[in-house]
UniProtKB/TrEMBL annotation:
This is ABC transporter permease. It comes from the Bacteria. PANTHER family: INTEGRAL MEMBRANE TRANSPORT PROTEIN, SLR0610 PROTEIN-RELATED. The chain crosses the membrane at residues 29-51, 118-140, 152-175, 208-227, 233-254. Keywords: Membrane, Transmembrane, Transmembrane helix. InterPro entries: ABC-2_transporter-like. It comes from Paenibacillus glucanolyticus. The keyword Membrane applies.
Length: 266
């Protein structure tokens, strides 16, 4: 099959998954509202501290909100289209991956749309924080309207980077089967740490968040240019290159991991 045929099939699987989820509209609306409430409450705790002390190592409340917003929206984009990558463990434990291996299409393409998520709550929360932070910084003259398309751009590159981290982490499951603890470290903990300026952390930790688990490339590095005019315009194309590099490495690792997969036999 051609690439166009694979993409058409992927789109069909997504539409099928959406239809199945929208059969329970009330549950969807309630879950979206609760998700937005939880996400907002997390930032409000930080906002209270910022309101009292003014800034965190020179980063204002609007700038911290911007970091939160970019990370939230990048994660949402990744988990909307690739959420089942994050849940590969259940396929390995229950033997469900065997079913995907028998399908006449790439395993990853069959896996990703299995339970397509419409993360409305996260979109609302992240979108509100992005609007509020940019509006505040525009009013203060810190950024101009060019920050809007630049922000949308880094949300996409950030989603690719987060997907790559998630895929590489999931691939370790072909050897260990259980990957929840590793995901807590490489995805959840690292992403939470990157919601704040990396200057808060020791150099060894910030280096890990920029090189080993490069969540700092999602929001911190681009924010230095977009919000503060630091580093230079080369940051934006460099981010695209970094995202493609991360994606290429994770896909190669995934293909290698598949060759080591051992069926449960169930």
């Amino acid at each position: 099959m051609t690439t166009r045929s694979w993409l058409s099939l992927y789109a069909l699987l997504i539409r099928t998954s959406i239809k199945s989820r929208m059969q329970y509209k009330f549950n969807f609306i309630l879950a979206s509202f609760l998700a937005a409430l939880i996400q907002i409450s997390e930032f409000l705790m930080v906002a209270i501290v910022l309101y009292k002390f003014g800034a965190i190592q020179g980063w204002s409340m609007h700038e911290i909100a911007y970091l939160f917003a970019i990370m939230t929206l990048s994660k949402t984009l990744y988990r909307t289209f690739g959420d089942e990558v994050h849940h590969l463990e259940k396929y390995l434990v229950n033997g469900e991956l065997d079913q995907l291996l028998t399908r006449p299409m790439p395993v990853l393409l069959a896996l990703m749309p299995q339970k397509f998520r419409i993360m409305l709550g996260e979109v609302l929360q992240g979108g509100f924080l992005l609007w509020w932070s940019l509006h505040g910084m525009m009013a203060a003259g810190q950024v101009g309207w060019s920050a809007v398309p630049q922000s949308l751009y880094i949300i996409v590159t950030g989603a690719v980077i987060l997907f790559s981290i998630g895929l590489a982490t999931a691939t370790f499951g072909f050897w260990t089967t259980r990957i929840t603890e590793l995901q807590n470290l490489t995805e959840d903990a690292a992403r939470t740490a990157a919601q704040y300026p990396l200057t808060l952390y020791p150099k060894w930790m910030s280096s890990i968040l920029l090189i080993i688990v490069p969540v700092g490339l999602v929001n911190y590095i681009p924010s230095l240019y977009i919000l503060r005019g630091e580093l230079g315009v080369w940051v934006l194309p460099a981010l695209a290159g970094a995202a493609l590099l991360c994606l290429g490495i994770s896909l190669k690792f995934w293909q290698f991991g598949l060759t080591k997969y051992q069926s449960t036999g169930s």
